[in-house]
């Protein structure tokens, strides 16, 4: 089972830091929802780890991921491939992200979680649920603002994401 | 018709209280989404009332509920039954909760509302919408933080929840 | 492509203004979700513009809208027609709105965006996704609080909204 988060926000969590995390999510989702995939790696640190993993795999201790990028170079390669070389039907994505919660923080890092839903719309098809999951994030606090040092996307949905094109 | 809420937040609503309500929702949803059903009654007061009711029943003044628990003992019985004695296909739940609004508060209580969506994923099936509704809550302010004195889950969805296993 | 928003909140964005925008969304959604359509025009200024437009039309520079109201008079006419003269099957609506972000503000105006999902439930049918989109808003700051001077609802969904009855 996924471990419980602490029930309350960490003591003395600054309001400004909560807002910084919320604004990060809004900008991140906005970038992907606009289809600006090549700007996506800029939300990560140089040595960031990005993984999209099925919840039952994670809970069973199986390492298999739907997407895995280690380091910003891999994120950029992935983004370039999606933008320029891969073949797929045109589609729109939209994120809903709620229940954003900071679970721990210090001067260097912030741990946070959030629930997300990805809605996908293909031309002439009704909008469908592509993926439902939660982010388990570690942000690095840098002079330029928050950057993802680790993003783990743990998704419930199993059937549909076989055709996942864009990152969560 | 469901009565209108006041359009603005109540005067002098403290930011800390807003955040406490938001954090409560995040912890409550996290507990159910992780499947930790036996921790669920701990979000309620000893004499709490928990009801899940269809919107058209509520608006017609009909008392029939999909779930009804009066007192923490009944909540614990229900949680125990779900965890240990009931038979159902394994499934994952995920909450989206947005538009959280505090409508009234004093030193002892907080009234609040929020919109929720429950997404359900059964093994090898696409994620589906289980229930769409809103919470109408009364929280008790205790030394240990907020606890639900009353949670009314008013759902729009009629067809699917015949097979509702977990609480909203 | 829809232009990028700035990645961070504007400098010195007051917390109170963020909350005012969030409370506006909650009250607006609550009004429509309760079916109180005749109260809907009260969220707009006298010369407000309200448009619901498909994302591919907007990106292609095509002006065709699913709904267009110019001025509060047109909004009231529309609301009256929905409440009193149009024929449609009874239905419940529910909004989810997340990732609310203020992108610019001054003493007179606030620019903001948010992602929305409209869930629709017809009698004896499962809840479905009616429309997924984002709000691009300009609020006027008035003595009575925020009012919409312009609301652009840019939706991804193409197939379903042919039967859109209520505004987003």
Write the layout of secondary structure elements.
3 copies of one chain form a homotrimer.
Chain A (H helix, E strand, L loop, with lengths): L14 H19 L10 E11 H5 L7 E4 L1 H14 L5 E15 L3 E14 L5 E15 L2 E11 L13
Parallel strand pairs in A: 1-6
Antiparallel strand pairs in A: 1-2, 3-4, 4-5, 5-6
> How would you classify the quaternary structure?
homotrimer
Rg calc of chain A: 16 Å
Largest interface: A-B, 29 and 31 residues
Low-confidence stretches of chain A: none
Tally of DSSP β-strands of chain A: 6
Query: Distance between termini of chain A?
Result: 22 Å
Quick one: overall form of chain A?
Answer: globular
Main sheet makeup of chain A: 6 strands, mixed
- CATH topological fold name of chain A: Nuclear Transport Factor 2, Chain: A
Give the percentage of residues in beta strands of chain A.
35-45%
Q: Roughly how much helix do the residues of chain A carry, as a percent range?
A: 10-25%
pLDDT averaged residue by residue of chain A = 91
Question: For the largest beta sheet of chain A, what order do the strands appear in spatially?
Answer: 2-1-6-5-4-3
Number of domains of chain A: 1
- SSE ordering of chain A: HEHEHEEEE
CATH class call of chain A: Alpha Beta
SSE-based structural type of chain A = alpha+beta
CATH architecture tag of chain A: Roll
Number of helices of chain A: 3
